User: Which sequence fits this backbone?
């Protein structure tokens, strides 16, 4: 969502992620490549302590990990995104993610959260809206915001002055045939505050999105899952569980469109973006790779999309993009009767899915109160959430994520549990007896 602009608004460069103060991952857990789950793997052991109400949690319903290792928890009980370091400490600088409200002052109960590589924190509340907060803008501060600009056509040399926020402003700002040669900016504090606080990134009720979403009711969408690709900052994906007469169950791509130019206190000039409907990636059906009452969503580093659903007939799916044509076409990456992960008998209620950096897949089953783990080929590996005597540890888990060291984090009944394969745990790490 952030690009650096140098040489007065002509040459666009990515603002490097290193500009942000990174949290250093503690070294108390050994790092090991878990891509193939070796023969020496035994069981998942619980790591102490449990993160619960003593850590400020009330009703954690989703969890994601940023590239700097910090953990973001959507807690709908406190209307907050709660941020942890990997040792459970609450870092400063994230206070604006607490007691969330929309632009009209109504409280927001977040149900999913994800972070892109530029530290844009996206979250949803079950409606047709997506919200965003940019940590870097808040940390550095915004000095001025564009109010108008002079655009020049790159072939004819014709120029025109356009006011920010108008339809032609958006059109020219996102047209490669036009470049900005001059910009006027304001230091209006109210406008700056609206950008440094959490705000709406996408609204299916907006006229432009209703126009682009021709065959569905975008204003009625009910987003249940959100995921941001690790290596592509120009799109995010959401799952739509509206249903209705037209079976509006689908996976949607949201494209980033330039909306403003910001001058930061550091002197950098960056783009601000807004989300526009980019297309229905996959729609309703009952076969492999189709969508029926979607519940959760994740994406791996290759762009494969994973989701769970409540409708018939398969609870867990993975779809892979074919990029050989003018646009991506997604087909099922797993097949019934061939891949364990598509066996519905393995799940009672597959409410969430997460994928790690090696494409291992973690499926949260709320009724079974455990997490089923599969390798990248969809082959069943082990379950997490049990003590050595097979006694269940959790009550009703609802979400999971995995960090780069293989630590599994699970949201369950007001708490977050952590697990690690027993043969990858450092002896100095405290585990559950």
Assistant:
């Amino acid at each position: 969502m952030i690009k650096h602009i140098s040489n007065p608004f002509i040459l666009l460069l990515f603002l490097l992620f290193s500009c942000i103060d990174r949290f250093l991952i503690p070294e108390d857990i050994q790092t090991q490549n878990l891509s193939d789950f070796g023969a020496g793997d035994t069981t998942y052991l619980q790591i102490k302590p449990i993160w619960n109400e003593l850590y400020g949690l009330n009703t954690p319903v989703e969890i994601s990990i940023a590239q700097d290792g910090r953990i973001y928890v959507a807690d709908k009980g406190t209307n907050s995104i709660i941020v942890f370091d990997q040792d459970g400490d609450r870092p400063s600088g994230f206070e604006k993610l607490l007691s969330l409200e929309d632009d009209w002052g109504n409280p927001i109960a977040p149900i999913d959260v994800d972070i892109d590589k530029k530290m844009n924190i996206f979250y949803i509340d079950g409606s047709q809206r997506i919200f965003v907060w940019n940590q870097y803008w808040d940390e550095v501060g915004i000095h001025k915001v564009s109010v108008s600009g002079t655009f020049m056509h790159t072939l004819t040399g014709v120029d025109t002055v356009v006011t920010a926020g108008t339809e032609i402003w958006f059109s020219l700002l996102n047209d490669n045939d036009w470049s900005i040669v001059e910009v006027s900016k304001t230091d209006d504090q109210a406008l700056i505050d609206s950008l440094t606080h959490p705000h709406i990134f996408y609204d299916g009720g907006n006229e432009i999105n209703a126009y682009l979403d021709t065959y569905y009711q975008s204003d009625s969408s009910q987003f249940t899952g959100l995921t941001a690709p690790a290596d592509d900052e120009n799109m995010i994906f959401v799952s739509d569980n509206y249903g209705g007469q037209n079976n509006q169950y689908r996976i949607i791509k949201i494209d980033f469109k330039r909306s403003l130019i910001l001058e930061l206190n550091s002197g950098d000039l960056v783009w601000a973006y807004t989300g526009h409907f980019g297309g229905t990636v996959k729609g309703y059906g009952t076969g492999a790779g189709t969508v029926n009452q979607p519940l959760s969503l994740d994406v791996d580093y290759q762009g494969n999309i994973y989701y769970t659903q409540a409708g018939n007939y398969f609870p867990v799916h993975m779809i892979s993009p074919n990029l050989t044509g003018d646009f991506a076409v997604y087909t099922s990456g797993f097949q019934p009767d061939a891949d364990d992960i598509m066996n519905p008998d393995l799940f009672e209620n597959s409410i969430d899915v997460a994928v790690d950096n090696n494409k291992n897949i973690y499926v949260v089953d709320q009724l079974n109160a455990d997490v089923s783990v599969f390798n990248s080929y969809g082959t069943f590996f082990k379950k997490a959430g049990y003590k050595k005597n097979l006694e269940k540890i959790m009550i009703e888990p609802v979400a999971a994520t995995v960090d780069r060291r293989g630590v599994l984090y699970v949201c369950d009944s007001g708490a977050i549990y952590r697990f690690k394969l027993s043969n990858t745990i450092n002896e100095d790490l405290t585990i559950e007896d």
Remarks:
- Residues 285 and 291 are 5 Å apart (CA to CA).
- Residues 1-28+118-284 form one domain.
